[in-house]
Amino acid sequence: MNGTRCSHVNKRRKEAWKSIKARLIEKFPTVELPNDLPQWYKRFISDTKKKFQLSKKTGQGGIEFTEAEELVLDGLGRDSPSVQGLMTGELGMHGFSSSLTEDSAASDDFMDKINLDSADKNSTFPEYESSVREIPGTITINSEESSESSKDDNEWSSSSQVSRAGRKKEEAIEKLTRETQLMKFNHDKLITLMMKKRKADEEINFEIKKTKLEAQKMTVELIKFQMELTKAQMELVQHQLKKS
Asked: Closest by alpha carbon to 136, among 200, 192, 69?
């Protein structure tokens, strides 16, 4: 049950951040938005609530809040348990109703009152804590959900890395398989050519031997013919001697 709720919360949170980021990009196209915008705003909300609680506890009415901090307190509700520091572990889905939608009043109020000159297209977001350049959005997040979101983001990041590593491994295996098949094909082709060459060499050697044998036979026949010719010449000489 908790897993289903966490999944639902994280899904709505991501959709809300996509909506807010899209509106910021549309309004300030030249401003570079950091990738950790949600994490930055979670810290901003937490510190704003601590600052408010400190002012209530110490009674220091002189503590001043920036316009962005005022927007956060107005969106959360200054008397809400989340801001007052009460029952933060039991808030559950508190703050994830209208503030998580694109048409929420808190988001509209933030976009209307955002402390940045829209005419200055080369401006950047103010720095806060980890030097992230950005302005706060409009989502209210309690500590339990922030922890769940961070855990979910880490798991999602690890899963993505494993997935990318898996794809790279599969691609490497496929490449190795193709290269192995090509090597086998070339090896088989080479063996075939070598066999053809061997067969051709054997045929050539056979023809050479055959020619040599025929030459030897012809030599023998020539010798026999010469012997018969010599014999005939001797008989002719003897016949002439007898006649004379």
From this structure: 69
* Exposure string for 176-212, b = 16+ CB within 10 A, e = fewer: eeeeeeeeeeeeeeeeeeeeeeeeeeeeeeeeeeeee
* pLDDT for the residue numbered 48: 82
Whether the Cβ atoms of residue 161 and residue 105 lie closer than 8 Å to each other = no
- Condensed to tens digits (0 to 9), the pLDDT of residues 165-202 reads 778 888 889 888 888 888 988 888 888 889 988 889 99
Do residues 144 and 89 touch, judged by C-beta distance below 8 A? yes
Contacts of 27 (CB under 8 A, 6+ apart): 111, 118
> What is the C-alpha to C-alpha distance for residues 183 and 192, in angstroms, rounded to an integer?
14
CA 63 to chain centre: 48
- Summarised one tens digit per residue, pLDDT across range 20-40 is 667 666 766 665 656 666 667
The C-alpha angle 228, 231, 233, rounded to 5 degrees, equals 110
Q: Are 82 and 142 in contact (CB under 8 A)?
A: yes
Extract the runs of DSSP E, i.e. beta strands, from 20-133. Answer: 127-128, 132-133
Closest CA to 30 of 133, 113, 138, 107: 133
Strand stretches in 75-199, DSSP E: 127-128, 132-133
pTM of the predicted model as reported, rounded to 2 decimal places: 0.28
DSSP 140: -
Q: Which residue has the higher pLDDT, 148 or 181?
A: 181
User: Hey, what's the torsion of the CAs at 33, 38, 43, 44, to 10 degrees?
Assistant: 60
What residue segments make up the domains of the chain, in order of their start?
2-141
Beta pairing, strands 127-128 & 132-133: antiparallel
